[in-house]
Design a protein that fits this description.
The protein is of the alpha/beta class. The protein contains six helices and eleven strands.
């Protein structure tokens, strides 16, 4: 039997499964993520008990002589293996927040190399090792048969013209680009007074409400303005 697929069009996947949510503190990022189907939170900022969803605290635990009794690289590997091989009811994995996870991965990589910071590893090998670990983690999450939600904080930048600033995710651009390249929807959350606002800031493709077969994802997307496009009329349809 040939390993090549049939030479014919295939059905496209119309349900988004990978999401990046960013916003200010207490703007509803974790609250929104909690409403995805059966979520498991990988929590980094110590607020795991503030969410009803099950969570795992992600952290480096230092031991004697500047070593680690637990490092996040091994911890994440064990979590992904468990999600791949064990029976569980989780449908969504939430990284809350990815900014902290990057710092923890950098720290663990440095300590594994017995240096204080990545630049201390000769010939740029520290950064190369970290980049490989980070990108493999993103790809392994995407390969799971689950929804994946990344949460990031907010930053303000000045474009150098006047005093006006604009809001962007606080995750460093080079890491954001890796995640954004593997995401379907990017969602910003805002709190204005007592109102919580959500808006789409980037998306992989147009999505149509009647194409979303996952009812859990549909419930989430129905509460985010601007997600769905109006399907263009085909020739012969009434206007």
């Amino acid at each position: 039997m040939s390993i090549l697929p049939p030479n014919e069009p295939q059905k496209t996947i119309d349900v988004p499964h990978n999401f990046f949510i960013w916003g200010a503190t207490m703007s509803g990022k974790s609250y929104l993520a909690e409403h995805f189907p059966n979520p498991l939170f990988l929590n980094t900022d110590g607020n795991a008990l503030e969410n009803k969803a099950p969570s795992i605290q992600i952290r480096n635990i230092k031991g004697p002589n500047s070593t680690l009794r637990q490092d996040v690289i091994k911890q994440l590997d064990e979590i992904i293996l468990a999600l791949m091989n064990e029976k569980h009811g989780y449908q969504t994995i939430v990284v809350d927040v990815v900014d902290d996870l990057v710092v923890m991965l950098e720290q663990a990589t440095a300590i594994r190399n017995r240096v204080e910071t990545l630049p201390d590893v000769p010939y740029g090998r520290g950064f190369a090792m970290f980049n490989t670990i980070f990108q493999e983690f993103i790809l392994e999450l995407k390969a799971l048969d689950m929804n994946v939600v990344y949460i990031s904080r907010i930053a303000e930048v000045n474009d150098g013209v006047g005093t006006e600033t604009r809001e962007i995710p606080s995750l460093k651009t080079k890491y954001y680009n890796v995640i954004n390249g593997n995401s379907d929807l990017v969602i910003q959350t805002k709190r204005v007074g007592t109102n919580y606002i959500r808006r789409i800031t980037d998306q992989r493709r147009k999505y149509y409400r009647d194409d979303i077969t996952d009812k859990g994802i549909l419930r989430v997307l129905n509460n985010i303005p601007g997600v769905f496009s109006t399907r263009p009329q085909t020739k012969g349809e009434d206007k």
